[in-house]
Amino acid sequence: MTTLTRHITFIIIALWSIQIVAQNNMKGYRIEGDDVVFVFNKSDYKKVSPDGYKSKKRFNDLTIENVVVSGEFNNWSKDQWNMTKIDDETYELRKKIIHFTDEFSWEFKFVINNKYWAEPTKKDPNIETAVKDGYHLNVYNLKLFTGAYPDKNGNVRFRLKGYENAKKVVVSGSFNRWSHDLFEMYKIDQGWELILKLKPDEYQYRFIVDGHWMEDPTNPDKVVNEFGEYNSHIDVKKRVEFKLDNFNNAKQVILTGSFNNWNEKEYQMQQTEQGKWIFSLPLSGGKYHYKFIVDGKWIEDPINKVKEYDDKGNINSVCMVK
Question: What pTM does this model have?
Answer without folding.
Answer: 0.66
